[in-house]
Amino acid sequence: MRKAEKALGKAIDNFTLQELEILKWVALGNSDCQISKLLEVSRGEVVNAIDSAGKKLSANNRVDIALKAITLGLV
To answer: Which of 3, 41, 52, 70 is the most exposed place for a label (fewest CB within 10 A)?
Structure first.
């Protein structure tokens, strides 16, 4: 396994499946409300997952979260 693949594996291990799913929808430009409807979860759950993922990515805002998730190959 290459170094980059190992790093990606470690990065993915830090996220819940729900966070990864929500990151995908964030990267596609969906709002919290749209994501909650798509995944049939509360808006609060979406907000919490985005906040948690943002902390794990050391991201400052939604655009930064999406950019870092894409750059790391998480979505």
So the answer is: 3
